[in-house]
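Data's thin. Show one?
=====
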Amino acid sequence: MATLNVKNLPDDLYEKLKLRAKRERRSVAQEVTALLSAVMDTPPPLSIMDLQGLGKELWQGVDAAAHIETERAAWD
């Protein structure tokens, strides 16, 4: 198993990480692993530009108006 060494981690960020780890009943290392796994396993957000055809199955349960606002804000 690999080892990750993080240098120059801001103290306030480390304190938040420790509190979160304690709340989740994990060690700091376990919490970092869980957070990284969650981020890396999350699919990228849908973009209207990536759709081919109607893509109805991709948009089920998505608030279209909110999604368009988010997309527009990303281009500002």
Notes: The chain has two domains: 11-41, 45-76.
